[in-house]
Amino acid sequence: MLFNSFVFLLGFLPLALALHWLVERFQPSLRLPVLALLSFVFYGYWDWRFVPLLAFSILLNWWTAEAFLKTKRSGLISLAIALNLAVLALFKYFNFFAEFAGMVPGLPVPKLDLALPLGISFFTFHHVMYLTDLRRGEAPRYDLVRYALYIAFFPQVLAGPLVRWREIMHQFDERPYLRSDAAERIARGLMLLTAGLAKKVLLGDPLAEYANPVFAAAAAGQVVSVAEAWQGTLAFTFQIYFDFSGYTDMALGLALLFGIVLPQNFDVPYRSISIQDFWRRWHMTLSRFLRDYLYIWMGGSRRGLPTQIWALFATMALGGLWHGAGLTFIAWGVAHGVALIICLLWRRAKLPMPALLGWALTLLFVTLCWVLFRASSFPAALTIYKGLFGFAPFGSGFKWRALLPAAAFAMLGPTAWALVHRLPPARWIAVLMAVLFVLVLFKIGDDANYEFIYFQF
Asked: What's the whole-model pTM score?
């Protein structure tokens, strides 16, 4: 069920909150099992056939952790991580690599028609983080219920944020409704949920109507004019931000309603003054994962400049592949890797970069790269680029009504998290949020709901 759907907002969520409150009030020892059960119900609503996969994944990795703690054999951790990545590769990348193998003459290559389980990339990475830290001696043992909840907690199981065990596990032992700030947390959680819904439904989804026809025309081999190319590219630039950051705001707000604080994932990324700054602000938990579990593992900055350059390039290329089983995603990651390398060399050479120029170049680069991310193929991307750089008819009818407010919100900020924590308790704010929530419900009822873009990853 989508967060931006009646079945979730008016059905699952009120029932889940009521059940959670009753258990917390009268039988607190059952709070975590109930939260885990609710998470499996939420996940199973999408497709019950994938519930056994999630459950088996949790059991296998927990059993591996138990066996490692008893035997101290690090090979068990390596085997479990390899199996996790193999399952991810089977569902997400088998046909992608099969196409390359099919280029060998005479080599029969099977293809699998497998549906991609929602959230498989995110819960796989949660397993990897915990098991890696366990092998390093940093993570403690957890019982099965706590580990299952860490992996499957429903606000973040489908599209993050990526949460390290040390950020959330200690919160499972709290009595959230007995805290002195319990009412404030609930209020801010509702505000974050409403703000995220508004960003998704009122800002992100209208931009999809600007972007989708343009990229569909490019995929169909039609000529895309200059006006259409810029309209589609700018629309997707802001759509993906409001879509994904809106989901994150909802996830953070929902978690607060159940007494859990999740890490932030966005910090006004379109105000970045360098590509390095952009990756400190965009999908921050993924950036941190790539840094801690890939970049540093490959040598990072500890083994000289050539190793650092290679680590940056490989990390971002793999980050692109993680986003999708396609060469365009790899190219998107490679482009960001090259930009990070140029940024690194620029800093080492101690060359100046005025902040305004750095912001303009970063925003332009990120915007142009989103074409690779969104386009269905290289020919489609090339069609868009021809329009962007003037190698197409100029065209007319540039749509700006949804773009202008989106650009203002995205670049001026602040983030929803910062805003709801700055606002003082006041009745007029509560009324305003209630009205905004009702407007979102009317919009959901009038229009077809778009799935979140990051659900496909």
From this structure: 0.93
